[in-house]
């Protein structure tokens, strides 16, 4: 049995009408298809031999580019990389490549395996990105909702070395309207497909693993988001700010679903924050290369 109050706090489908939800999800796909049409890149790359999951690379050029690894949401059980490329053309115009990532979906895929897969995707970018127009020293990750949680699992320490990665492989991060402490979900409707107990939820919670320096982050949430998502975003920002540079961004006039689309619009605060973060990495990268 789920807890009714927890269900209210975390059931963001109830924060928008069914018609608006369907409209926004359709817009994810339509705008993604439009954004990548004619854009230079590589598609249908198997990044993980074990799971046979794929990624796409968009917005490449003749010189290695910083890369934004975009991770889709869908409460870990829906959507795909094809819904998550809408920012690719806007970022291409800024000299930034985009990688969109698929992962196995719950309940068929346990959450531990989903986390392993997105980490494997980052490992692919680091080890093979240079052959696909990507700069492995300028990797930024981001995603919305479940993708925000998965972004958090890429920010924390402790997973990089077994994959042959430096501790700072992720240089910047933008979790958007994510969940960072999964323990409340054990008593929620979402556990129907997650099947978590408290111990597993604790082990999969970035908020509880944020115990050392990590990447620069912009931690964002919609001001019309669900109460649980707003609270968790603030808590994660406060925990991350104890040891790493980060900014809390509450985006006005946005809900849990349409906030993500702001990354496709260069006039929005969210897009500008991402570009500034990546440009800052580029400046530091250029300065480091100039040292004798």
TrEMBL record:
Query: What keywords appear on the UniProt entry?
Result: Hydrolase
Domain of life, per UniProt, equals: Bacteria
Provide the BD-FAE-like domain boundaries: 61-151
Any one GO MF annotation of this record: hydrolase activity
Recorded hits in InterPro entries, A to Z, give: AB_hydrolase_fold, BD-FAE-like_dom, GDXG_lipolytic_enzyme
For the keyword RNA-binding, the answer is no
Q: Read off the PANTHER family from this record.
A: AB HYDROLASE SUPERFAMILY PROTEIN C4A8.06C, KYNURENINE FORMAMIDASE
Protein name stated in the entry: Arylformamidase
């Amino acid at each position: 049995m789920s807890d009714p109050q927890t269900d209210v706090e975390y059931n963001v489908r109830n924060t928008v009408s069914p018609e608006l939800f369907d409209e926004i999800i359709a817009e994810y796909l339509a705008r993604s298809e439009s954004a990548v049409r004619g854009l230079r890149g590589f598609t249908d790359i198997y990044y993980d031999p074990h799971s046979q999951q794929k990624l796409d690379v968009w917005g490449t050029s003749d010189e290695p580019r910083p890369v934004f690894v975009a991770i889709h949401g869908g409460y870990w059980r829906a959507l795909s990389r094809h819904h998550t490329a809408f920012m690719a053309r806007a970022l291409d115009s800024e000299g930034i490549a985009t990688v969109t990532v698929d992962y196995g979906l719950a309940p068929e895929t346990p959450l531990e395996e989903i986390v392993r897969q997105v980490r494997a995707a980052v490992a692919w970018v680091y080890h093979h990105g240079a052959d696909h127009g990507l700069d492995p020293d300028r990797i930024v990750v981001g995603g919305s909702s479940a993708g925000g949680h998965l972004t958090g699992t890429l920010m924390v320490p402790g997973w990089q070395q077994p994959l042959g990665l430096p501790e700072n492989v992720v240089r910047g991060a933008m979790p958007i309207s994510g969940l960072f402490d999964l323990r409340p979900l054990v008593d929620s409707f979402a556990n129907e497909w997650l099947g978590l107990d408290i111990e597993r939820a604790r082990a999969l919670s970035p908020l509880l693993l944020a115990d050392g320096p990590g990447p620069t982050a912009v931690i964002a949430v919609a001001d019309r988001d669900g109460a649980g998502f707003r609270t968790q975003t603030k808590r994660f920002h406060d925990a991350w700010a104890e040891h790493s540079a980060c900014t809390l961004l509450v985006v006005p006039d946005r809900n849990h679903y349409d906030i993500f689309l702001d990354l496709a619009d260069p006039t929005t605060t969210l897009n500008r924050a991402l570009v500034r973060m990546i440009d800052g990495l580029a400046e530091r990268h250029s300065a480091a290369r100039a040292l004798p």
